[in-house]
Design a protein that fits this description.
The protein has about 120 residues and is mostly beta strands. Helices cover about 0% and strands about 55% of the residues. The protein has no helices and ten strands.
Length: about 120
Amino acid sequence: MIRRKNDQTTVSKNIREGHGEIQVTELMKADEFCGKGRLYSKMTVKPGNSIGNHVHSGDFEAYYILKGEGRYVDNGAEKRVYAGDFTLTKDGEEHELINDTNEDLEFIALVLYSK
């Protein structure tokens, strides 16, 4: 299967009570995970916007930073993330991502079930 760029859906929405809206391009649809996960998307965080702090329960999430940089809060510890970095938030852990720069922050997000 190939899903062409023109067939991908992009929506803007607030995520986890963060600041502003995040552009989310759905790369896989929910029924394509065969019950193993729920999200595989390209996300764009505009300057000043964020994904709010949240805990993962029953799943885990990976980010691969494609472009830009931002402040990543990993279980309460603030760290910088840059293009080429990978983050992993395991089941029971929490994270947050803030674009505190003047450029877009783009990344791939993957959420898989841990059970």
